[in-house]
Amino acid sequence: MIKDKLLFNGNEKQVFSTDDPCMVIFRYKDVTTAFHGVKRARFAGKGILDNEISALLLGYLNDNGVETHFVRFLGEREQLCRKIEIIPLEVVFHNRISGSLALKLGVEDGFKPANSILDLVYNNDELGDPLINRDQAVALGIATYQELDAMYDTVRRAGKLLTDLLHKAGIELVDIKFEFGRAADSGEIIISDEISPDTCRMWDEATGERLDKDRFRLDLGDVTDSYKTVLNRLKQALGVE
Ligand code: C5P
Questions:
Q1: Gap between the terminal Cα atoms of the chain
Q2: Is residue 1's pLDDT more than 90?
């Protein structure tokens, strides 16, 4: 696979075209941002950890019947992915109520409801990524009701698979954000973007310690060490070296 042109140069990732029009290469940087880019820092080696964790989690979903854009791990910072047309929505799956949802609902951060909660977010920087509902997403022509049903079903299945996998690693999946795209090769809607401690909340089941991007958002320190813990425990749970 030949790496070709830089298609996208984000804060945290780059995307390159390849000699296959249906494949792209994701390259993970060490820069991390929060609060819509207002907070920014660089942690040496973080991109390598994000790439490895994301490859393991996306690969696990592929292997368990949930299609994602991930094809294969290429090297320490790079992975090969199916090219997609981005759907500007995020679906957030919550096992606990934390972060912005806790503030919105006025409940204690970490409140555990009896059900899991799904939220739909309109991925639009200018509008500050507002919450929207299904009718509004359909009205904007972003997706059909049928496609939204399929995305919700995928999120429920992926959320359960990852909750159970992380539990084996002694990690509680508190919440997780999924993005979707239409695959260039088949047109089907598949999970896209990364899945890593940058896009989930992950708490150590034994200590309650946060092992995710909240360490950066909340200035808790030990960002890369926590990501290393996630990677090592995940490898153990999956039985990979
Ligand atoms: O920020 P908030 O509390 O709404 O985040 C909910 C979940 O979505 C968290 O796991 C967070 O890491 C993830 N998220 C994300 N990208 C964003 C906003 C939130 O991955 N732009």
A1: 25
A2: no
pLDDT digits (tens, 9 = 90+) for 130-170: 999 999 999 999 999 999 999 999 999 999 999 999 999 99
**Rounded to two decimals, what is the model's pTM?**
0.97
Reply yes or no on whether the pLDDT at 75 is more than 90: yes
**CA of 174, closest atom in ligand 1:** 10
Supply the pLDDT for residue 190: 98
Residue 200 Cα to ligand 1 midpoint, Å, equals: 7
Ligand 1 pocket (Cβ < 6 Å) reads: 92, 99-101, 175-177, 199-201, 213
Closest atom of ligand 1 relative to the 201 alpha carbon: 10
Domain holding 90: CATH number? 3.30.470.20
* Ligand 1 atom nearest 213 alpha carbon: 12
Give the span between the Cα atoms of 162 and 172, in whole angstroms.
10
Say how many Å lie between the CA of residue 4 and the centre of ligand 1: 31
Asked if 232 and 221 touch (Cβ cutoff 8 Å), the reply is: no
- Which residue's CA is minimally distant from atom 15 of ligand 1? 199
Q: How many domains does the chain have?
A: 1
pLDDT band at 241 (very low <50, low <70, confident <90, very high): confident
CA dihedral 83, 88, 92, 98 (to 10 degrees): 120
Which atom of ligand 1 has the smallest separation from the CA of 129?
A: 21
Which range marks the domain in which residue 206 is found? 3-238
AA identity, residue 107: V
